[in-house]
Amino acid sequence: MGIISRGFGGRRRDSAPDLPPGQYLTHDFPVLSAGPTPRIPLDRWSFTITTEAGQKHTWDWARFTALPSEEITRDIHCVTKWSKLGTTWKGVSLDTLFADVETAADYVMAHSKGGYTTNVPLEDLLDGQAWIAYEFDGEPLDPEHGGPARLLIPHLYFWKSAKWVNGLEMMHEDEPGFWEAAGYHMYGDPWHEQRYQGD
Amino acid sequence: MELDGNALAGDLAEVFAVEMTTARFTCAGCRHADAVATLRVWTRAPGVVARCPSCGDVVLSLVRTPARVVLTLTGTARLELPV
Fold it and tell me: Would A3 be classed as within a structural domain?
């Protein structure tokens, strides 16, 4: 192979022992999107958890940002094979948001402005594993990265961390979201390289 | 980054035996019909996503795995192909 053939991809590759299989390390923050980037004014932002019984728990921006927040430092892994280590966020734990939610359902469909959806087991959102994040690196979250607020589930591939999230819907059965219906894995554990259906 | 439907040409050429950018789609959401080349396409994503230029709904997506190409046409009411 010629020395220039690795080019674009090869220059970004670092070796790092703490990466899931098949991932390479990146130091920038790639922007992936499947549609136009919505610009959501804070006075029109809301987030709703809807139970299987139809009960709604809704927060506007003022109520949401008045909740206890946490500083979060985690590695993130995109299914397109980049990983970024030690990313720092500020957000509200899903444990806090689910504190008064009564549900017997085991699965969640996350919904975003623009129609994006992704499915997650409820147990993956609780016990300090997931947040609604609204700051990255000490700054308000850019719209390109999902601002004003996005789901953050760092232990799953990053397509599960829905940008522009505006609601969680409880479900008794696991149903596929947008990328899951298009061929990606229902769960998406990067350490087991669950990229596609059948992995 | 948004492109137009001509960006689908290479991927769809693997799936269909005819030139697809001049095929006509009908959007399942709003019934808008036009050439595939007029779709609004996003490629910097886990797959390729093509949206209706009229209503913005997803008309088709294409995911490439190591062994398969998965073409999802949930948002396509009809494809008219040249012969």
Answer: no
